[in-house]
Structures are given as structure tokens and as C-alpha cells.
Amino acid sequence: MTFILVALVAASLVFAAAAFAAISTYHNGGMVSGQIESTCCFYSRDFNRVYRPGGYVFQLGYSADGQTISWAAPNTWDNPFVDQRNATSAIAFCNNYSSYFVTPVTCQTTVP
Description:
- The chain is of the alpha+beta class.
- The chain has one domain (about 20-110): Jelly Rolls, CATH 2.60.120.
- The protein is about 15% helix and about 45% strand.
- The chain has one helix and nine strands; from the N terminus they run αβββββββββ.
- The chain has one helix at about 1-20, and strands at about 20-30, 35-40, 45, 50, 60-65, 70, 80-85, 85-95, 100-110.
- The strands form two sheets. Strands 2, 3, 5, 6 and 8 form a five-stranded antiparallel beta sheet that branches. It has a four-stranded antiparallel beta sheet with strand order 1-9-4-7, with no helix packed on it.
- The longest helix has 18 residues, at about 1-20.
- The protein is globular, with a radius of gyration of 17 Å.
């Protein structure tokens, strides 16, 4: 009976993990002032985030058409800075909105 219970719990954990989207790193390194990085493809997104040292202004955004970007409000201190807006079939963007070269910078979003 214990074996069956353990097997059921393990199977439910596998199915629960499969329901969550994977995290994709689309930039890792330094970013010059005004540099914008993006994902390559249109996917549903659960969030978009950037890890960088505090004190530097960054913006995160999405584009549903590849041309118009819907930016979240600029953020200076939250690390990570997370844009909790989700998007359906969108490209994710990460923008160094500060006047400085910033390193390290890691931009991440979700992919199905």
C-alpha cells in the first residue's frame, strides 16, 4: 500500500511540473546604455524578468506583432525586476534604460 501511495505522489508531481512553463535566458552578460535584447520567437509568456545590480534603470516589455513594444514602467532597484504581465504569442524584451554600461545582466522569460 505504501508503494502505491509513493508511486501516485511521484506521478502527480511529474504531471504538476509539466504544467509549468520552462525558463529561458535570452541574454546573459553586459549591456551598454540603450541596448535592447529580445527573444527570437513568439510564445505565450508567464513573466519577463531581469537580474542586474541595483541602481540601474531597466525596462521589460512584450511585443505581439514584432514592431510595437508594450513596456512596463522603468525600474531601478528591484532585483530581480519582474514584469508579471503575461502575454499570448509575444516576443519578450529587456532594455538597459540607464546611461551606463551594466554587468552582469541576465534577462529571462518563460517558454512553453
